[in-house]
Design a protein that fits this description.
Blueprint lengths: L2 E4 L5 E2 L14 E4 L6 H6 L29 E6 L2 E6 L10 H14 L4 E5 L3 H13 L2 E7 L4 H9 L3 E5 L3 H11 L4 E2 L6 H7 L1 H9 L7 E5 L4 H15 L8 E7 L4 H7 L26 H10 L3 E5 L1 H13 L6 H14 L8 E4 L8 H10 L1
Helix pairs in contact: 2-3, 2-6, 3-4, 6-8, 7-8, 11-12
This protein binds pyridoxal-5'-phosphate and zinc ion.
C-alpha cells in the first residue's frame, strides 16, 4: 500500500494528509510501489512524466509540468577518461530542483493547497516559485538576509513573496516552519514528495544506458535531495527487476562546510557541529542537513565514499569545464573537482555517471569575480 511512514516511530499516514513530518517530530518517507511499463515509456514525451506510473500523483489533471526532464547524458573527457554527465543545468528554472518541484507542487495541487511556504537561499526557491506560479498557488519563500541577489530576483519575478530572515540559514528554516503551521510546507529537504521527483534522475540515467545501472555515481551533496532521490530511484528499479545493481555513490562536499564528509570519514555517531565558512559552492554549503543519518546510510550501503574539495579546486574546475564549453554554476563545479579527485584512484573500466546541477547564468556575480581573478 502507498503511504507516508515516520522514520522515528513508524507511524503511518495516508498520502492524502497535508503533513510533512510526524506528530513525534520524526521525518517522513514515502513508501510507494511503482510500475515501469517499458514499452509505453519508450513511446512517451521526453519528460520526467514519462515514468507516470512511478510517480505518486493520482490524477493526471493535477500534474504541473513545463515538459521538464530527460536531459541529455553526454560523454565528457576528463584527462583521457570519459565520464557521462547528465545536463541538469538545462532545466526550465536552471537547476535539477525542477524534478522535485514538479512532483511536489503537483501534490500540493492534488491536496487543493492554496498557499505554500519554502525556505531556500537559491535554486530550490526558484523551482518552487516557478511551479507554484504555473499551478496558481500562492508562494512565500523564506531566505537568509545574506542570500545571493540573482536567484532572489528570479524567485520574485515568478511572483513569489520573498521574506528575508536575519541570522543563519537555520533561523530561516525555523521561520518557515512556524509559517508551515498554517500553510503547506513545500520543503525540498523535508517533504518526501520532493524526493519522488528527484528520483527521476535515476530512471533517466538507467533508460539512457539501455535500462542498466552505471558502476558509479558522483553527486554533490548538501541536504541530499539529489543523492537520496537517486538512491530511491535506483532502488525502485532494482526491486522491479529492471536493473541488477545500485551504483556506488560518491558524495562531494565543499571542504569549507563538510559535516557529512567529517561524520563519514571519522565514523562519528552524530553529525558534528561545524564552524561553517563561506563557500563559493553555495548550494552545498549546508551546516545542518536534516536527513544526515539517511545520507550516511545510503553512501555506506552502496560501498561509496565522500570527497571534500577546497575553494581553489572548485574555481580551477569551473574554469576548466567552461573551457570545454559548459557554463555551470560554482556549486556544480565542486562536483567536477570531485570527479577529478575520484579519477586519480578509479578503475579504468568503471562506468561513471555524474551531473551538472545548475546553470552558470544563475550566478553571474560570482562568475564575474572568478573572471577577474584570471
Ligand atoms: C546547483 C546545486 N547543486 C547541488 C545542490 C545540492 O543539493 P542537495 O542540497 O539536495 O544535496 C544544490 C542545492 O541547492 C544546488 O543548488
Ligand atoms: Zn513518528
Amino acid at each position: 500500500m502507498n503511504k507516508l511512514i515516520c522514520q522515528r516511530c513508524n507511524k503511518e499516514f495516508s498520502l492524502n494528509e497535508r503533513i510533512w513530518r510526524c506528530d513525534c517530530g520524526g521525518l517522513l518517507d514515502l513508501k510507494f510501489i511503482p510500475a515501469f511499463p517499458l514499452g509505453k515509456i519508450k513511446e512517451r514525451k521526453p519528460t520526467i512524466w514519462r515514468y507516470r506510473e512511478a510517480i505518486p500523483i493520482q490524477l493526471d489533471e493535477n500534474i504541473i509540468s513545463f515538459n521538464e526532464g530527460f536531459t541529455p547524458l553526454i560523454k565528457v573527457d576528463f584527462y583521457g577518461r570519459d565520464v557521462l554527465i547528465k545536463q541538469d543545468h538545462l532545466f526550465p528554472t536552471g537547476s535539477y530542483k525542477d524534478r522535485g518541484a514538479s512532483v511536489l507542487i503537483s501534490k500540493a495541487k492534488e491536496l487543493n493547497v492554496k498557499k505554500v511556504v519554502e525556505d531556500s537561499s537559491g535554486n530550490a526557491g526558484c523551482a518552487i516559485a516557478a511551479y507554484s506560479a504555473k499551478a496558481n498557488i500562492k508562494c512565500d519563500i523564506y531566505v537568509p538576509a545574506y542570500a545571493s541577489p540573482a536567484k532572489l530576483a528570479q524567485v520574485q519575478l515568478y511572483g513569489a513573496k520573498l521574506i528575508k530572515v536575519p541570522g543563519t540559514r537555520e533561523d530561516t528554516a525555523n521561520a518557515a516552519m512556524v509559517a508551515a503551521e498554517k500553510d503547506y510546507y513545500a520543503s525540498h529537504s523535508l517533504n518526501p514528495f520532493f524526493f519522488h521527483g528527484t528520483k527521476t534522475f535515476a530512471f533517466e540515467v538507467s533508460e539512457q544506458l539501455g535500462w542498466v545501472s552505471p558502476d558509479t555515481l558522483i553527486l554533490p551533496v548538501g541536504n541530499g535531495t539529489l543523492l537520496l532521490g537517486a538512491y530511491i530511484g535506483f532502488n525502485e528499479l532494482l526491486e522491479a527487476n529492471i536493473i541488477d545493481k545500485i551504483p556506488k555513490i560518491i558524495a562531494v562536499q565543499s571542504k569549507n562546510c563538510a559535516p557529512l564528509y567529517k561524520a563519514y570519514t571519522k565514523n562519528l555517531k552524530m553529525i558534528p557541529k561545524i564552524d561553517k565558512q563561506e563557500s563559493i559552492a553555495e548550494g552545498i554549503a549546508i551546516a545542518n542537513p536534516k536527513r544526515w543519518e539517511q545520507i550516511l546510510q545510503v553512501v555506506k550501503k552502496t560501498k561509496g565514499d565522500f570527497i571534500a574539495v577546497d575553494e581553489s579546486e572548485i574555481k580551477d574546475s569551473l574554469k576548466e569545464i567552461c573551457k570545454k564549453g559548459f557554463y555551470i554554476e560554482p556549486t556544480s563545479a565542486a562536483t567536477v573537482a570531485g570527479i577529478k579527485r575520484y579519477l586519480e584512484n578509479s578503475n579504468p573500466d568503471e562506468e561513471i555517471v555524474s551531473i551538472f546541477t545548475g546553470h552558470g547564468l544563475k550566478t553571474t556575480e560570482k562568475m564575474v569575480e572568478i573572471l577577474r581573478e584570471i
